[in-house]
Amino acid sequence: MSAKQGKSLGKSCENVTERMQQLHFNEQQRNMKPGMCNKFMHAVIDPDFLQGEHGSEVLSKLNELSLKYEIKRQQFPRVVTFYRANAQTLTVQGAVTAKTSPLKFIVHLMTGQELVLHVKEGTLRSIVDRLTTLYPGTVLSLLVFGLVSYCRSNRNCVGRKETETALTEVQLFNKCSYQLLDTAEEVGNFVAQLGKSLAELPYKQQQYDKYCQEQLYLGNEKKGCVRVEGSAGLHQLYQNQLVKIPSVSLEVAEAIISVYPSLSQLMDGFRFAVDGPNLLADIPIRRAGGPVTTSIRRIGPEMSKKIYLLYSSLESSQEL
Asked: For this UniProt entry, which segments traverse the membrane (predicted)?
């Protein structure tokens, strides 16, 4: 083989490798999107977790979202762990490999009767400590199933204050979240929705990084979003923002925009008005986009005050 032929063959191999890498990258991006990513998420469920009426609901909800599951004995009873089965990857040498990635999230199911017993004996934190020792570095979610129904049938079994104190302690000291669930459907929904959220996590993280890098915080990838390019779309965004306020209809939003065409003008109006809370009170509302009739309908002082508080209050907990 001549040097020229060898060079040509080497370049051809490089082109094939680059093409395969690009195809693989495109496949990765497609598999990462919501809906597609679910099929790579696996829930590993302890058999004891499925004992009871909620067992069939858990499996049914996982199937509805196309999430895979395995029934396998865990290190601790009634525990669910998760892992992601990564799609086949192409190495630098051109070899195709596949691997799994365990996720640092676990779920433990506890019955209402067990919780009452742990609260009485003061052993709830020790149970959570044991779980965090067996599964180090994980985020633990504690599901308490049937506490209300158990307490109804066993009056004076434990005080509400003692129960809330014990659960608050594991939240603060063990960084453990908890959910009080009363129906089998709620248990199934929690496990399935957690699996779905974990499946979509890489995609959402990628989108977040992309927007942070580009300093772009407005997108139109979902229903109801408004594309803003330069000044185009700002009017629609402003209108949509007003309509999101409770009790503000499209007609009310259009009435406000007719007087204050932009958000900055509305903010300036509130800022420099002598009576800011009543700034919008006397603005007439056109019915269904028609002319102002003899029976004039106005925004009114209550609605005006609500919008004023929304745009002027510095209190994060301000009630409208």
From this structure: none
3-state SS, 187-208, equals: HHHHHHHHHHHHHHHHHHHHHH
For 139, list phi and psi in degrees, rounded to 5.
-100, 120
- pLDDT band (50, 70, 90) for residue 206: confident
- Between CA 208 and CA 214 the distance in angstroms is 10
CA angle 39, 78, 160 (to 5 degrees): 120
Instruction: Count CB neighbours of 51 within 10 A.
Output: 12
50 and 215 Cβ atoms separated by less than 8 Å: no
Whether the predicted pLDDT of 92 surpasses 60: no
Enter the tokens of residue 302.
């209550």
Strands 68-71 and 41-45: parallel
CATH architecture classification, 234-312: Orthogonal Bundle (1.10)
Any idea where the domains of the chain sit in the sequence? 32-211, 234-312
Q: How far apart are CA 108 and CA 178, in angstroms?
A: 10
Query: Does residue 178 have a pLDDT over 70?
Result: yes
Domain covering 32-211: architecture:
3-Layer(aba) Sandwich (3.40)
Among 53-57, 92-96, 126-130, 171-175, the range scoring the smallest mean pLDDT is: 92-96
266 pLDDT more than 80: yes
Confidence of residue 85 (pLDDT cuts 50, 70, 90): confident
